[in-house]
Backbone:
């Protein structure tokens, strides 16, 4: 089975003009062509850039990342969906490692190697939330707020996400 039949990249965006073209180019260079950009009504030309780069652009219903996910998942027809932030802070090539692990899991979280672009206060908050999550659920995760994860499509389709904003990452885990 070719890459095209295996995974769809789903990119929720809101004003990601500086990164969206780069991330789409990178994903395509890896051999993936099923790229869905769910735009939250950006005002900076994000959707137009994504269209020019060959991504399928869908305008999100509702507000927040959870609504973007629900909107985009309706258009995914592959066994796996790779959700990745549109700001080009993650390495799309890590999808290969994640896909190898998907035989045993319904979700694989990709952890960002470089956190330089994350303000110190946010890094601290992320660390606290991840520690609490690990204590509460007996896990050993490194970054529950990661903006890059691969999901088994049939397990996530139909989930009614109630989370708002970026808390969607934690909501699906629980």
Residues:
């Amino acid at each position: 089975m070719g890459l095209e039949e295996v995974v769809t990249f789903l990119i929720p965006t809101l004003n990601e003009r500086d990164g969206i073209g780069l991330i789409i180019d990178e994903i395509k260079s890896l051999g993936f062509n099923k790229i869905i950009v769910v735009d939250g009504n950006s005002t900076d030309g994000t959707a137009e850039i994504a269209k020019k780069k060959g991504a399928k652009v869908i305008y999100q219903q509702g507000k927040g990342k959870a609504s973007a996910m629900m909107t985009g998942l309706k258009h995914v027809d592959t066994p796996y969906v790779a959700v990745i932030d549109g700001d080009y802070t993650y390495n799309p090539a890590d999808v290969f490692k994640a896909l190898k692990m998907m035989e045993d899991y319904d979700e694989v979280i990709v952890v960002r190697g470089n956190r330089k672009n994350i303000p110190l206060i946010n890094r601290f908050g992320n660390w606290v939330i991840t520690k609490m999550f690990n204590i509460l659920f007996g896990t050993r995760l490194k970054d529950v707020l990661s903006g890059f994860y691969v999901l088994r499509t049939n397990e996530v389709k139909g989930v009614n996400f109630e989370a708002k904003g970026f808390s969607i990452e934690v909501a699906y885990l629980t």
Q: What stands out?
A: The first strand starts at residue 7 and ends at 13. Residues 65 and 166 are 6 Å apart (CA to CA). Helices lie at 3-6, 17-29, 46-52, 65-73, 95-101, 120-137, 153-156, 168-173.
